[in-house]
Protein: Sulfate transporter family protein
Organism: Algoriphagus machipongonensis
Amino acid sequence: MESLIGNNLRYDLKSSLVVFLVALPLCLGIAIASGAPPMSGLIAGIVGGIVVGAFSGSHVSVSGPAAGLTVVVLDSISSLGTFPLFLSTLVIAGLIQLGLGLLKAGVLGYYFPHSVIKGMLTAIGLILILKQIPHALGYDKDTMGDLAFAQSDNHNTFTEIWYAIKFNSPGAIVIVLVALGILILFEQPRIRNHKIFGVVPGALWAVISGILINLFYQNSFAEWALDGEHLVTIPSVSSVDELGTLITFPDFSMIGDPSFWVIAFTLAVIGSIETLLCIDAADKMDPQKRITPPSRELVAQGIGNSFSGLIGGLPVTAVIVRSSANITSGAKTKLSAILHGILLMVLILAIPNILNKIPLSCLAAVLFVVGYKLAKPSIFVSIYEKGWDQFIPFIVTVIAILFTDLLIGIGIGMAFGLFFVIKSNFHKSVRITEMNGNYLVQLQKDVSFLNKAPLMNALSKIPNGSQVIINGEKARFIDHDIQEVLNDFIATSSDKQIKITTEGFNYKLTETV
């Protein structure tokens, strides 16, 4: 048992380092994009790792501030007027989530189509790659946590790349190429599993290389040196006493205002949907295929959000970027998520000056690798081979998320997924076969009003003088509208010299009056 824990700890600690490096710039970037203090994003990252990780039933997902909620948070702070008022809505939103979890509302997470989940993962992978290109080229006008197509700097994903190409920084390009080389090297099994080299993840070596190269620039090649917006920027805390100045507490003075409750419910519902989507996706990526209890996850998120709101943090959800980095880095248990939260808390207090030397371009390299693993070309091929009913919802979800944002894209993908479910249901619920002028009409499983139009169309095409058997043995439920369609067909059959035999019905099909 001790050996098993030791082996898991080795993998989990290594994964937590990678997740920490991924989470650090995203926590800061999401806070800035949300119009909130930078420290609020770091607080949410710490709470998502330690608090949510402790209560969660997921083995591999990681929680933190979510890019999908940036617009909601930005609008909420603006409409309420102050950040403390927003924090109070977050505390209540967490309690609402807690209630949803206790009511077992998490079961709704089982109804997301697989093709849409795969599309979400692939889209996020592509977005990570596209969004990191400007940072890799040293053009850091947009925050690293902004994953929406329309950006806060009035550009979009593609125009930002164009500006980055025009106004690139050679120093950043060298750093990202070296970092990518290190990451690719450490992806090789010989290195990754080596007793010495494999102890420290390649992402950490990539970050160290970026810091050292930029120090070389500063001392010997000043025109290529990176500073200011090109580096990680963590609020500096020189003592524990100063920490209190960076923490904001909630203001509940608007709790009686209807708009207060609208925002609280909005945060709870959207946060819950994003969490359920993420844990479903993370479970599919988990090599051990473990299943996360969705209602327990809502309870964990509710506790986390209320706690985050009480100490000045942003809303937290399960986040696919950090979760996928965690999984692909070899995490075995949820200890990795908790350790990443501890690393955030300890290191931003202990070594902020060192962390503030990390170039965003080398962190972009880390996210390039995460993005590629989510959006490999082989994924497109494998989904295509499963048929159009899987590929179309998949590709629509990918495109919709790329050009809107996560939640809108998921909604569009769900609509297409539902269309193909209904279309498939049409074909499976009513089956008509013909042989030598004899027709067999089979009603299978549940036949609802949704099957009315195709059934009427199929029956109208049966030629005069045919012999028809209507079989309902396999139907567990036949909607009243379907019964009327069959009764109408029987009523007019004598006019067309159609002979009808009915089988397997537990009620008598009669002519309509």
Notes: Residues 1-5 have pLDDT under 50 and may be disordered. The chain has three domains: 2-376, 381-426, 436-503.
